[in-house]
Amino acid sequence: MVNLFQGKIKNLKVKHLLLCVFTFFMISSLAFLMTKNLKKIHAYDFSNFNPGNIISDGVMSNANAMSVEEIQRFLTSKNACKDTNIAKAKSYPGLRYHIENGHFVCLSEETFEYNGQKQTAAQVIYDAARDFQINPQVLIVLLEKEQGLITDTWPNHIQYRSATGFGCPDTAECDSKYYGFRNQVRNAASMFRSVLSGGWTNYPVGKNYVQYHPNPNCGGSVINIENRATSALYRYTPYQPNVGALANYPGTSYCGAYGNRNFYVTFRQWFGSPNLFVLGDMNHYWQTHGGSAGEIGPVMENEYCDHSVPKCFQTFQNGRIYWKRQNGTFFVKGDIDNIYHDKRNELGYPLTDLITTGYDVYVQKFENGVVMKTPQGIYQTNNQIFEVWKNNSKVEDPVVKKLGFPTSDIKFSNNSKEGLYYQEYQNGVIVGNDKYGYHVSMGEIRKVWEKYGFETGILGFPTSGIIHNFNSPEGIFYQEYQNGVIVGNDKYGYHLSMGETRKVWEKNDFEFGKLGFPTSDIKFSNNSKEGLYYQEYQNGVIVGNDKYGYHVSMGEIRKVWEKYGFETGILGFPTSGIIHNFNSPEGIFYQEYQNGVIVGNDKYGYHLSMGETRKVWEKNDFEFGKLGFPTSDIKRDGKTEYQIYQHGTIYFDQTRSWVVEK
C-alpha cells in the first residue's frame, strides 16, 4: 500500500513493484549524493507536522464533509480532462487509456459499472464515504497519494485497477481480488473504518517504533501515535518520513518514504488542516466556496459553539465562518473579522456575506448593524445609517451627493434626553435616532445647526434629509428639524427659519413670494421694552413678538416706519401685515401699528396716518371721500398739526380740527 516514489504506478508503467524495490537498493548511494545537493525551491513548512497525529479522528470520520455534487465540482476543478495529446499513449502499448472525442478521459469524467449502471467517480467516493463513515476528502487524497488519479490528465488502466494501492504490499504484486476502482475505494474506506472503530492495527494508539523505509537498515524512531485515525494511516502505509523526506518535499531523500508525508501535504493544500474538521452547514459553505483552495482558505481551529442558541463560528486562514440557526451561514473576511469578532455580542451574527455596493465600498450586514469597508478604512454603523448613506450615494444632485466615505464608527451622544447616534463621513455626518429618523447633516446647513446647539438647541433633532428644491427661483436647499427649518443657498446664505416668523414667510409663499430668500437668521432687538424679533429677506423683513404678532415689513412702508424710529418711535409695533385694498379708487397699501397706520401707493407716496388727523380722514371716508389720498406726512406749524391730501388739508391745533378743501 505504499510506493516509495509517491506511489504512481503509471510512472513505473509495466514494471513490477519488486523490481522497483530492487532498483532502489541499486541507486541508494547515488540518491544519497543527489539529495545532499537538492535545492529546496519547493520547501514546505512542516513545523506543525506531528508523525503521531497526522490526522484527527474527527476529520477522518467526517463523512458529511462533501456532497456528491461538491465532490464532482472538486474533481473537475482539479482536472477537467482537457488533455488532447493522445499520441503519447502509443509510447506505452502495454497500457490502456480511455480516449473519447480526441481527448483523454480522466477521473472527473470516468464512469464505472456497478449493478448494470454507470457510476461517476464522485458517486463511488461519496457512497464509500457514507457507507463506512469516512471523510470523502480522505479518499480523494488517498487516490492522489497512491496513483495521482485526481490530477493525472491521462490515467491508464493499472492506475484505476489499483487506485488506492489496497492489497499492494511492498514485497509482492498487487492482489487481483482487490482490483477495480470501486473495489479499491471501498476496501480502503472499510479498512480505515475498522481501525477507527477499534479494530486490529499493527500500530495501535500509544508508543510504536515506525520505520523510515521498507529497508530496516534505514532506521526509524519511536513515536507516540495519539489517535486511531493516525493509526489507520500507519496500518495503510507503515512508514514515517525522515528528516530528509520532510526537508526535500516534494522531492526524494536517502532512505525516505513519502506516502504519509504526501498525504499530509496534499490534504492541507486541498482541504485545510487534517487535524481540524469542519462540520454541517459550515462545511457545506466552506466547500462550495472552494474549500482550502478558495477565498476562505484552510481551517485553523475547530468550531466553537454555543448550543443554547444555537450558534457557532470557526476560524480559517482568511477569516471566520459564522452559523446561526435562524440566520444561516456566512463568511466574515479577515480584515473585517478582526474588527467584528470582538464586537460580535454588540453587532450580533452576520445576516449576509460581504456585498459590493458599486461605490468602492463593501458592506456586511449583521443582526444589529453593518460593517463598511471603504478606501478610508473599516467602520461599524447601524442599519438605519447605512441605508441613509446608500440612498445618499444614489442621489443624482452633485451638491447633495458629496457625503463621501465614513471616517469613524457609529457613536452615541447622550446630551439630549432621547440620545443621538451619529457617524462622521468625509464631508458630513449622518445623525439620528429611532424616534426622529436618521438624516444627513452636512455643509453650511450643518454649520447653522451647530451654531444653534445641535440637537440640544432651539431646532432640536433633524426630521428630514437635506432637500434641494430645483423649482425655486434660484434653487434652495433646506432641512427640517423638530422646531424649524434651515434654508438657503450659496448666494443668500443659510439661515434659521422657524416659529411665527416662518409661518409669516410661508403665508407669503416662501421664496416664491414677494419677500424672496432669507438673508439673515432670526435676530432679537431689545431696544423696546417688549423686545422685537426680526428676520431679513431679499425684499423685506418679518418682525414682531408674541404680544403684537409677526408681520411683513417691506418697501416704502418700511422706510416710513424706519423714518419714525421703528418700534421705539411714535408708531410702535406693527399689528398687521401690509394690506392691499383693491377696492380703493387707485389702490392703496396700508399697515397698522400700535399707534397708527402707514398708508399710500406708488402714485401718492406712503405716509403716516395717526391720531386726530387720521380720525378726521376716517370721518371723511378715507381715500374714498372728498379729501382723497394723503400726499404728505403729518407736519407741524407751531402748535398746529396738518396733513395734505389730494383735495385738501386736515388741521389740528390740540383743541379742534378742521378741513380746508382746495
- Overall body shape: rod-shaped
Order of strands in the sheet with most strands:
7-8-9-10
Can you count the helices?
19
Mean pLDDT: 91
Quickly describe the structure.
With 662 residues, this protein is of the alpha+beta class. The strands form 10 sheets. It has a 4-stranded antiparallel β-sheet with strand order 7-8-9-10. It has a 4-stranded antiparallel β-sheet with strand order 11-12-13-14. A 4-stranded antiparallel β-sheet has the order 15-16-17-18.
How does the SSE layout of this entry go?
Layout: H1 9-12, H2 17-36, H3 57-60, H4 68-78, E1 99-100, E2 103-104, E3 111-114, E4 117-120, H5 121-132, H6 136-147, H7 157-161, H8 181-196, E5 206-211, E6 220-225, H9 228-236, H10 243-247, H11 259-271, H12 280-288, E7 304-306, E8 311-316, E9 319-324, E10 328-333, H13 334-340, H14 344-347, E11 355-356, E12 362-366, E13 369-374, E14 377-381, H15 383-394, E15 411-413, E16 420-425, E17 428-433, E18 437-442, H16 443-451, E19 467-469, E20 476-481, E21 484-489, E22 493-498, H17 499-507, E23 523-525, E24 532-537, E25 540-545, E26 549-554, H18 555-563, E27 574-581, E28 588-593, E29 596-601, E30 605-609, H19 611-619, E31 635-637, E32 640-645, E33 648-652, E34 657-661
Antiparallel strand pairs: 1-2, 3-4, 5-6, 7-8, 8-9, 9-10, 11-12, 12-13, 13-14, 15-16, 16-17, 17-18, 19-20, 20-21, 21-22, 23-24, 24-25, 25-26, 27-28, 28-29, 29-30, 31-32, 32-33, 33-34
